Amino acid sequence: SVGLLIDEGKNPRGGYLADNSKHDYIIILKGFLRWMIKKRYANELLTAEGISDIGTPKQRIITKAPEDLLKDDDIYRMLTSEKCSVQLAALIAVLYWTGARIGEVLSLQWKDLTFEDRLLKTRIYATKTDTYRYAPCSEALEYVAAWRAHYPRSIEGGPVGDNLVFVSLDYKTGEYVGMQYPNARKQIQTLCDAV
């Protein structure tokens, strides 16, 4: 049934899969099927040759055109908007000036940030390569420093050490938790639409 969904290009949650998603799913599925053959979990109908015959859609390397990307003016308009919270400004600034993935930025802990005279250094865990990289982002310093000053006092220890930099209030428990991708995406999209 997974193969049928992929073949038809349907997303199990509704809508349609992008070619890159279909490519990834088929690569994973083929690897799983090969593993099944190797472990002898498959019957004689499933063969290595049959798996090789499964076509894999070509990946699109470039998914955004230059005109799709935000410009410096767009970013500054967002950062200076009265609708932009202090935390959201810090998040956008770090995303923009480090070029990191949103998941990488959301996993930042305060110990990953080094504040020096007019310089902010970030240590980013690169999920794709399982390594750390360092990105200076002086342009984000004022926004991150402002967020550090406004960091919720109810979080034990405050803006230091292992505490996550970007947090959201869990209304069920009344406690702060790490901000998740859907929440961050929604906040950024709402701000983009407003400015």
3D structure, described in words:
It is a single chain. With 195 residues, the chain is an alpha+beta fold. The protein is built from 8 helices and 5 strands. It has a 3-stranded antiparallel sheet, with no helix packed on it. Strands 4-5 form a two-stranded antiparallel sheet. Helix 5 (86-98) runs antiparallel to helix 7 (141-150). It is elongated and about 65 Å long. The mean pLDDT is 86.
List key phrases describing it.
single chain, about 40% helix, about 15% strand, three-stranded antiparallel sheet, alpha+beta, about 200 residues, two-stranded antiparallel sheet
Taken as a percent bin, the fraction of beta residues is: 5-15%
* Oligomer classification: single chain
Radius of gyration: 22 Å
Query: Helix segment count?
Result: 8
- The share of residues in helices is 40-55%
Order of helices and strands: HHHHHHEEEHEEH
- The tally of beta strands, per DSSP, is 5
Give the structural class: alpha+beta
Q: How does the major sheet shape up?
A: 3 strands, antiparallel
Q: Provide the residue-averaged pLDDT.
A: 86
**Distance separating the two termini:** 44 Å
